[in-house]
Design brief:
Elements lengths: L2 E3 L8 E4 L15 E16 L4 E14 L12 E12 L7 E22 L10 E4 L5 E4 L1 H5 L2 E9 L4 E9 H4 E3 L5 E3 L3 E5 L3 E7 L7 E6 L2 E7 L5 E8 L6 E7 L9 E7 L5 E3 L14 E2 L1 E6 L6 E8 L2 E9 L5 E4 L6 E2 L4 E4 L12 E2 L6 E7 L5 E7 L5 E2 L2 E2 L1
Parallel strand pairs: 3-10, 8-12, 14-20, 19-27, 22-31, 22-32
Antiparallel strand pairs: 1-6, 2-3, 2-10, 3-6, 4-5, 4-6, 4-7, 6-9, 7-8, 10-13, 11-12, 14-17, 15-16, 15-18, 18-19, 21-26, 22-25, 23-24, 23-29, 27-28, 29-30
C-alpha cells in the first residue's frame, strides 16, 4: 500500500492495523489470549524529521508481536506480520501525519506487551538501508540489531475480540541515525508505539518559515515532531492523549535560511480522535526576525553515547530547541548542516479557544535572547547542563562525564 496522508486522526511512524483493536493497557490483565476470540492488527509507519539528511531509507521485512515484554526473539509465542515483498521506505516522506501501511493479521484477543520491527540486512549492490546527507551522496546505514532480532518496542496494548485496532510506531530518524567518526552511519533506533484510538493531532500554519522544525513537547521533552511544508502548514500526529485534560506545548524552530526566530504556543489540548488547530492560513503564526548561532563540541569519554540538547527557559517553561547525538568519537554539532539556534528572543503565547480572528497573540521575550542550557545525557542517564550565551560566531561547549 502506498503512503497515505492522515490528518484528522493521530498517527506517526509505524501503525499496526488489521481486525485487531489496540488501546493503551493498564493493569488487571493476566496477559493471556484466547484462540476462540480474535481481532485484526494492522501495521503502518510514520516518522519525525531527520537532522541533516535528505533521505533515510529502511527496508522492512516483518513486524512481530508477543504477549510477554521479556520474550526472547528466538523463542516461541511470536506472531509475525510479514511485509511481502519487503519494502524500502524513505522515512522522510512520512511526516505531517503521513503514514504507510505495512500489513495486517488476525490475532487472538488479549494483552500484548512487545513489538519488534525487523529490517532486511544490507548485502551486495545497493544497500537496503541507507542515508543521504544533505547535498551529499547515498551511504549505507548499519543496522545490526534491527536486522538480527528486530527493533524492540515495549508498549502494552489490548486486542479486543471482533474489533480492528491501529498501533502507530513513531520512528524518530533525527535521534536514531548516528554519525560515526570515520564518516559512516549507524542506526541506534528511537521508536515509540502509540495506539491511534487514544491519540489526537495538532495542526497549524507558520508564516515565512517553510521547512521549520515543529515539536509537540511535554515539560521540555519532545513527544512528536514534524517539518512545516513549503506553505508553512504542519501536522503533529499522532500525539497520545495521556489524560482527558492533556495539553502540549508547540515549539517552532525555523531554519537559518528564513531569518526567523522561535515561536512557542503553550497549553494546546490533545483530543483523542480529534484535531486542534493553533493557527490557520488566514491568521498564521508570525515569528520574529533572527540571526543564528552554532554550538558544537566533544563529549568524553567517547563511548558515553551522549545525546545533546539545547534548552531555552521562557514563558514559564523549559523547551527543547534542538538536539543531536554525539558520534562514536564524542563529537557533536547542533546542527551539522547549518547554524541551528535562533539568537533573537522567542515569541510566546497561550492557546485559546476559539482562536481569535487575528490568531493567538505572541509576545517576544528579549530577556533570553541567545541564552540556552546545553544539556548532555549519557547512555547511563547521567545529565550535565551548562548555561551559555550563543552569538553569531558560534560556541564550543565540551562535556566530561
Amino acid at each position: 500500500m502506498n503512503a497515505i496522508p492522515f490528518v484528522a486522526s493521530p498517527l506517526r511512524l509505524l501503525a499496526l492495523s488489521s481486525a485487531l483493536a489496540l488501546a493503551a493497557c493498564g493493569g488487571g490483565d493476566d496477559g493471556s489470549s484466547s484462540s476462540s476470540n480474535t481481532g485484526t492488527l494492522s501495521v503502518s509507519m510514520t516518522d519525525a524529521p531527520a537532522c541533516g539528511f535528505d533521505h533515510v531509507y529502511v527496508t522492512v521485512d516483518r513486524v512481530r508481536v508477543h504477549t510477554s515484554a521479556g520474550a526472547d526473539p528466538s523463542g516461541g509465542g511470536w506472531v509475525d506480520i510479514p511485509v511481502s515483498p519487503a519494502r524500502r521506505i524513505d522515512l522522510l516522506t512520512l511526516s505531517n501525519g503521513v503514514l504507510t501501511n505495512l500489513g495486517q493479521t488476525a490475532l487472538p484477543a488479549g494483552t500484548y506487551q512487545q513489538v519488534r520491527l525487523v529490517l532486511v540486512a544490507n548485502g551486495a549492490g545497493a544497500p537496503a538501508n541507507s542515508v543521504v546527507p544533505s547535498s551529499g551522496t547515498e551511504q549505507a546505514l548499519d543496522t545490526p540489531s534491527a536486522v538480527q532480532s528486530g527493533i524492540k518496542i515495549i508498549r502494552p496494548f489490548t486486542v479486543a475480540p471482533n474489533t480492528q485496532s491501529d498501533l502507530v510506531l513513531d520512528f524518530d530518524a533525527c535521534k536514531s541515525v548516528v554519525t560515526r567518526g570515520n564518516g559512516t552511519f549507524g542506526l541506534k533506533p528511537v521508536v515509540t508505539a502509540v495506539p491511534m484510538v487514544a491519540s489526537g493531532a495538532v495542526t497549524g500554519v507558520v508564516a515565512s518559515a517553510p521547512g521549520a522544525r515543529v515539536f509537540a513537547e511535554r515539560n521540555g521533552v519532545v513527544v512528536k515532531a514534524t517539518v512545516a511544508d513549503g506553505n508553512g502548514n504542519f501536522t503533529l500526529s499522532p500525539i497520545e492523549q495521556i489524560s482527558t485534560t492533556d495539553k502540549v506545548d508547540v515549539v517552532i524552530v525555523p531554519t537559518s535560511t528564513t531569518g526567523r526566530g522561535t515561536g512557542i504556543v503553550r497549553g494546546v489540548p490533545v483530543v483523542a480522535g480529534g484535531s486542534t488547530a493553533v493557527a490557520t492560513a488566514a491568521a498564521p503564526l508570525s515569528l520574529p526576525t533572527s540571526t543564528f548561532g552554532k554550538v558544537s563540541g566533544t563529549v568524553t569519554p567517547a563511548g558515553s553515547e551522549a545525546t545533546v540538547r539545547a534548552l531555552q527557559q521562557t514563558g514559564g517553561g523549559t523547551f527543547e530547541i534542538a538536539s543531536a547525538a554525539a558520534s562514536d568519537t564524542g563529537a557533536y554539532s547542533l546542527f551539522p548542516a547549518q547554524p541551528a539556534l535562533p539568537l533573537a528572543g522567542p515569541v510566546v503565547g497561550t492557546y485559546v479557544a476559539p482562536l481569535p480572528s487575528g490568531g493567538i497573540p505572541l509576545t517576544q521575550d528579549g530577556s533570553v535572547a541567545g541564552k540556552y542550557g546545553i544539556q548532555a545525557t549519557s547512555s547511563s542517564g547521567t545529565v550535565i547542563t551548562q548555561q551559555v550565551t550563543v552569538t553569531t560566531t558560534g560556541l564550543t561547549q565540551n562535556f566530561a562525564f
